Amino acid sequence: MDTTIHLKRTNVLKGTATLLPASKSINNRALIINALAGSKSEIQNMSDANDVQLMLRLVNSKDETIDVEDAGTTMRFLTAYFSITNQHKVLTGTSRMKERPIGILVNALRSLGATIDYIEKDGYPPLKLSGFAGQKTDTIKIRGDVSSQFISALMMVAPILPKGLTLELEGKIGSRPYIEMTASIMKHFGVSSDFKDNKVIVAPQKYIPAPFTVESDWSGASYWFAFAALAEKAEIYLPKLYLESLQGDSVIVKIMEQLGVQASMENSLLKLTKKESVKELHWDFTHCPDLGQTVAVVCAAKGIKGYFTGLESLRIKETDRIAALQNELQKIGGNLVEVDAAHWTLIPSSSLPDKAFFNTYKDHRMAMAFAPLATLMNVEIEKPEVVRKSYPNFWNDLKEFGLV
Ligand SMILES: O=C(O)C1=C[C@@H](OP(=O)(O)O)[C@@H](O)[C@H](O)C1
Ligand SMILES: C=C(OP(=O)(O)O)C(=O)O
């Protein structure tokens, strides 16, 4: 049955987003590393995100068929984990997961000594993993411009390889903070690695169990920045977020400073209030691709022209996010124009309609990025349940602000 959520137009926002989840990126790394360290560590503040709940259930599953649904990190990290730990599995997912590339990771794992076959289309899930025959090489060249998740996946299994692993990253490196996040979490569990320029070196080492607490999700927090940017008045509090964070998406503070949001710590909560905004925004999303939709919608609604780079990887995420943004922004009189393969111009709306219905393309970030428009107009959102991937209580948090 198709569902739709109607948001109540509300332009004064005061309250706390108490159900903001923990970071799914941090959490899924901690779960893989914990499994490699013998599953003895206590992980606190676990995320209720579906991607994390899937990882929690699947990483120690004895089942042969592993269905990761639409969780990219779960797919990529488990492919490396099951391969190198010599587990025979079939890894599958949603129809969209079957369109998201994995060939670069599969080639790397094959050259290390893993046996992996494609069940349907070459280069894409589902995969059949048939064990690990022993390490064949200690150096791999790997492209850095498709998904950093391939690199993180290999890094996490690298210390248990008898010869360790050197990754030579080729081409542009995207999502670099996620690679740094991987190195930091490995370090927390006693494994050092060296990541400089385009090389990652991991010597053979043992992970040491250690208690770990997951911080809140900055990508999820970005929607609250968007609400603050678009509201007439805002005083929004967010729990368990740290300005110094492992998450590259904490850069939302700097982006939103330009789009009219002031962020500061108050009694261990992050407080968002309003300030003046700029007339145009220049931003490179190479290292924070998950913020692209949030920022595009805010610029479109606030009449701020955007000059964007680094959006290439949006085409291979939960949906083609460039196409989805183009379709949906047109409903409010905006657009995202592809100038060339590396540059986009965000054309803002000159006047917003009174109401609009937004499609979500099975993408949690489409639903959450368009919700903040409810500060300015009547908003309906298709299939609101998509938010379960990263922020299952998003709509419940909106209730606290009178938006639902
Ligand atoms: O490693 C991670 O946790 C992630 C890396 C990014 O993907 P890419 O490396 O594919 O850009 C990001 O978009 C995704 O949501 C989470
Ligand atoms: C791209 C995302 O996730 P993943 O690649 O892990 O599916 C996301 O959460 O925006």
Automatic annotation (TrEMBL):
The active site is at D290 (proton acceptor). It is an enzyme of class 2 (transferase). Keywords: Amino-acid biosynthesis, Aromatic amino acid biosynthesis, Cytoplasm, Transferase. Phosphoenolpyruvate binds at K24, G72, R100, Q149, R321, R365, K389. Gene3D superfamilies: Enolpyruvate transferase domain (3.65.10.10). Its EC number is 2.5.1.19. It catalyses: 3-phosphoshikimate + phosphoenolpyruvate = 5-O-(1-carboxyvinyl)-3-phosphoshikimate + phosphate. PROSITE patterns: EPSP_SYNTHASE_2. It holds the Pfam family EPSP_synthase. InterPro entries: Enolpyruvate_Tfrase_dom (IPR001986), Enolpyruvate_Tfrase_sf (IPR036968), EPSP_synthase (IPR006264), EPSP_synthase_CS (IPR023193), RNA3'P_cycl/enolpyr_Trfase_a/b (IPR013792). Pathway: Metabolic intermediate biosynthesis; chorismate biosynthesis; chorismate from D-erythrose 4-phosphate and phosphoenolpyruvate: step 6/7. Its main location: cytoplasm. 3-phosphoshikimate binds at K24, S25, R29, S147, S148, Q149, S175, D290, K317. It is found in: Cytoplasm. Residues 13-59, 63-398 form the Enolpyruvate transferase domain. Belongs to the EPSP synthase family. Monomer. Catalyzes the transfer of the enolpyruvyl moiety of phosphoenolpyruvate (PEP) to the 5-hydroxyl of shikimate-3-phosphate (S3P) to produce enolpyruvyl shikimate-3-phosphate and inorganic phosphate. This is 3-phosphoshikimate 1-carboxyvinyltransferase. It comes from Ohtaekwangia kribbensis.
